[in-house]
Design goal:
Layout (H helix, E strand, L loop, with lengths): L1 H4 L2 H6 L1 H8 L10 E11 L2 E9 L6 E9 L2 E7 L30 E4 L10 H13 L1
Parallel strand pairs: 1-5
Antiparallel strand pairs: 1-4, 2-3, 3-4
Amino acid sequence: MFLSVNGGQFAGLHPELVKFVLDSRSTDLPRKYKVDLVLVRGGFARNSGVSGNVNTATGSIEVVSEIAHYPFALQLIFGEVHHQRRGAIEQFAQYGLDEKRDVWLYTVAGHVVTKFPGDYRNRERVDLEARQSAED
């Protein structure tokens, strides 16, 4: 899905990711890729090619791509992560295609309301914060 959302040049820039995706038996997802799974309630769908998230307080930058459609959102994170992660699933790549495992997954449950990747606020919170911002 991420190869589709990011267009033609993406595959050429990430050949090791392409190799992993094309080999259904591979358990070698390169460490520079992280994948988070988020549970999302109904509403909108959202696809985001590669984009950057900047924390102006810390100066940290994260590069991500996102696919969000009820009931899941997936974030592909490139390189270093600067936030506490919930729903990390890249470790699933270490299991074989037919291997069965019991796993515990702690993730976030949210909404897809805005166009902004990684924003899982509900409509009420978005509206409240918009009003507060307009008052400032």
